[in-house]
Amino acid sequence: MMRIAIVDNAPACQERLTGLCRRYGEEHGESFDITVFDDGDAFVSGYVPEWDVVIVDVDPDDVDGIGVMRRVRAMDDAVEAVLVSMSDEYAAEGYTVAAASYILKPPSYETFSRSLDRCIHASRGHARRSVTVVTGGHERRIRLDEIIYVDSVRHRTVVHTMLGNFQIVCSIVRFEDLLNELDHSFARANSGYLVNLAHVIAIDGHDAAMSNGDRLPISRPRRTEFRRRFSEYLAPGAAA
Predict the structure, then answer these.
(1) Does the model's pTM come out above 0.85?
(2) 58 and 90 in contact (C-beta within 8 Å)?
(3) Keyword annotations for this protein (predicted)?
(4) Percent of the chain's residues with pLDDT above 90
(5) What is the extent of the structural domain holding 185?
């Protein structure tokens, strides 16, 4: 079952969006758990990264969905966002919060259906697989494809991502086990570094050159295995 949050303070819009979700579910055989919020601040203050789709009004005089989604993105990289508005004035800002769609009110079923298609496909796709961690006393959901590498120094585990670095409450060994249950493109460069092979630009000497410019040393005992794993990761692309 997919969880959908509708954040809009207009009862007519709440009813319209809820009805569109239910119609889509009936026609596509999808099961949705839909919750309506009429206050953006309340939605964000109680946010837990467990939603699949957020449908939010972006008109500043109402909910200010752009501001809501900026705050949500500080906690959740994986949730899909649909922005709705009376005008296209804020469409460009939708890119800044990684919105899947921007649709005008009142949305037709055809437009809404295409938007929800994209959200569901993305939410279930390989690129949107994610892991939830505890950082700074709060839960945060991180997309696996945005993790560059993980390091561990003095029992401190830090996840380096495309959107910033996060110290997490989890040992690197436990985190490695968790990642390997979801994705097999993570490999140890040494005892202190767990590397996402998708972000390895090259193996340069005894270092892994990463997409963010960092160079991570590959320990002598792990060099052969790391090179093998990297070659295997590249093999499908090379074969194509």
Answers:
(1) no
(2) yes
(3) Phosphoprotein
(4) 78
(5) 131-239
> Rg (Cα) of the chain, in Å, rounded?
20
Rounded (10°) CA dihedral 25, 28, 31, 35: -30
Residue 209 φ then ψ, to 5°: -85, 120
- Please, which pLDDT band fits residue 127 given cuts at 50, 70 and 90? very low
Tally the domains of the chain: 2
**Same-domain pairing of 123 and 143:** no
Single-letter amino acid, residue 97: V
**Tens digits of per-residue pLDDT, 170-227?**
999 999 999 988 888 999 999 999 999 999 999 999 999 999 999 999 999 999 999 9
Tokens 């109680």 correspond to what residue?
Answer: 46
**For 11-45, what is each residue's pLDDT tens digit?**
999 999 999 999 999 999 999 999 999 999 999 99
The DSSP 8-state label assigned to residue 64 in this structure reads -
Q: How many helices (H) and strands (E) does the chain have?
A: 6, 15
pLDDT confidence bin for 101, thresholds 50/70/90 = very high
In this structure, the number of other CB atoms found within 10 A of the CB of residue 153 comes to: 9
